[in-house]
DNA sequence: CTGAAAGCGCTTACAG
DNA sequence: CTGAAAGCGCTTACAG
């Protein structure tokens, strides 16, 4: 009452409609009245009532999400969908709808196509997992031109003007993995790093983890031998098994294996089938297949970064910015969680 | 339009005021019209518009929080306050205010007094850390009589009708601690469990962790010797140091120490001062003093359970129930987080 | 037991 | 460039 648009209008000797115009930075207000109103707003420290605003406005706000589609090999992306849906349920009463777009993680063109589809629609905010660097950068630029705020999850793109990144600090997560492995090995032991990925592009992502892992042992008193192998482009189980057989035949003394992504379940499967469960195994992500191997002891640790929460927080960051006009942290590193046989039951992915 | 109170009123041939009366289960409506309106609501699957409701209603909703006050020894309780304030900032636009009450963790009477103070005010929901079992039970009963929903954090009270418990699964967290210690010790090693607490009552809480810890090694192939000591009622540093000196003089071969609460920082301090950093150390909670000792390697692991998020979620659960009339999970176990030198920087307490 | 009217704090056409 | 009026979907007195 003492601070609403009515009061501002009264003090400025204008109608509430005019106040509303400057509030939303719309055209059709003289500089003079605009400045007068702005001054009064500042004086009153005017805070719009979001309830009233959303109730009065019939305009629905549209957010779009663009993430990889779920497949047998990319079950991981189930969690972000859930996160998006949770956020949607929470904010739909504010007149927000979320259009969900998916692309094929192994096909850049599908990303380009879907991002173009999004830009054809009127959209107020975008949540995207920018797996393909160049294509994502191009998309981001178009969004900036249209002044559409973007939030990135899962991995970041360097040097780009997005609203926020919400996801892992990849280097640190590799570092932590090494720290965990450090408890399992002795000086002189041999450690194998395994990257499993179809797309060369995704390597950027995995490489950061590998770097963090190697950096840990570089200046550590415990000296270990680190070897590595990339399994690409074929990543089906037979390909994984074939390569691991080769490597582990050449290096019969591998004490621990670090897999840089969720494909750790394939490696676990292999170790189990070949009775090599004595090799310590550390990998990524909270997937049913991996949890099974955590239970039966083939996998020792999983590093997880709450993909569901990443997406949830991503949508809420858009909401915070677009609906509440609030500030958003430009970079929000998710906690790096260590999952073991002992705590997986209460883990919220 | 097709589903609001107006439409219901039209179909039932009554005014919106009457619809509002049955909506809020107020008196002064004949059974007949009430049933008619109820039927139409069900038919339409009527969902009230929360925005409109909160905007129209001038009634503010009051939640109360009742947790231990912060002191040098109980810095831990800083985090829940932050969580409460975060939630408050988020929901105050819905006309919710939160009254914060504090009690002395070492004084049951202060809990009784503060809980009585709360009940003197008109309150719509309560968040409480029920450290004192009997007093909390009594308080809970009074709340139930007044139909005030209660959410518990930090620790649960058995067999009581609360809206929700949000906090650790204590037994499991002890179990996980043992799992971590297991990586650090060998068969035959000696492990010391340390409970540090002023109030005997708090032991219930610590005992559950101890039980989980011991249970882990009970049916484990690796046989270890577990000894324990309780430091009570004096818990200042000199008392801790004195007792540890005694124990570690008697048992010169202790390989690892498990402290069942945040007082691990006192133990760390002692180990550092007495040059016994070679003893592995595992404890609880993300406090600055402990983080320092995590950094310099005196503490190996901290087990944390996001006290800030517990309180945040607790308030949001009340909001969910009271404002949105939504369902709330009766028990929500927080993830059991493992914090090390490697991942503490990105941990959100 | 029930209804008519005003109002919550905004936004939205429409008219000038 | 600006204002008057209606309306978003509820709740709140007040009158009967």
Automatic annotation (TrEMBL), chains A, B:
UniProt domain HTH lacI-type: residue ranges: 3-57
UniProt KW keywords: DNA-binding, Transcription, Transcription regulation
Record carries keyword DNA-binding: yes
UniProt GO MF annotations: DNA binding
Pfam families (alphabetical): LacI, Peripla_BP_4
CDD domains xrefs: HTH_LacI (cd01392), PBP1_sugar_binding (cd06307)
Entry protein name: LacI family DNA-binding transcriptional regulator
Annotated source species: Pedobacter alpinus
């Amino acid at each position: 009452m003492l601070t609403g648009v009515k009061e501002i209008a009264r003090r400025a000797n204008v109608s509430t409609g005019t106040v509303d115009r400057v509030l939303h930075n719309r055209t059709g207000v003289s500089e003079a009245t605009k400045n007068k109103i702005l001054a009064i707003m500042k004086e009153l420290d005017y805070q719009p009532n979001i309830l009233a605003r959303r109730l009065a406005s019939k305009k629905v706000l549209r957010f779009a999400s663009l993430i990889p589609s779920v497949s047998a090999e990319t079950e991981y992306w189930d969690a972000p969908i859930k996160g998006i849906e949770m956020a949607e349920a929470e904010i739909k009463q504010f007149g927000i709808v979320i259009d969900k777009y998916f692309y094929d993680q192994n096909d850049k063109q599908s990303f380009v196509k879907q991002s173009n589809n999004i830009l054809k629609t009127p959209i107020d905010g975008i949540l995207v997992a920018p797996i393909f660097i160049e294509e994502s950068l191009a998309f981001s630029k178009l969004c900036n031109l249209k002044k559409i705020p973007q939030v990135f999850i899962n991995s970041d793109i360097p040097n780009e003007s997005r609203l926020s990144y919400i996801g892992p600090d990849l280097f640190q997560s590799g570092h932590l993995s090494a720290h965990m492995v450090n408890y399992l090995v002795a000086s002189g032991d041999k450690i194998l790093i395994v990257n499993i990925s179809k797309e060369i592009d995704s390597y950027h992502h995995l490489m950061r983890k590998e770097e963090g892992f190697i950096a840990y042992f570089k200046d550590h008193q415990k000296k270990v031998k680190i070897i590595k192998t990339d399994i690409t482009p074929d990543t089906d189980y037979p390909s994984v098994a074939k390569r691991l057989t080769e490597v582990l035949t050449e290096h019969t003394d591998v004490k621990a294996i670090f897999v840089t992504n969720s494909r750790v379940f394939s490696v676990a499967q292999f170790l189990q089938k070949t009775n090599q469960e004595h090799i310590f195994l550390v990998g990524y992500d909270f997937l049913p297949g991996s949890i099974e191997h955590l239970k039966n002891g083939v996998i020792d640790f999983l590093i997880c970064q709450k993909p569901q929460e990443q997406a949830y927080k991503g949508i809420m960051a858009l909401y915070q910015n677009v609906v509440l006009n609030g500030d958003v942290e430009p970079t929000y590193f998710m906690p790096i969680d260590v999952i073991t046989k002992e705590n997986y039951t209460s883990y919220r992915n």
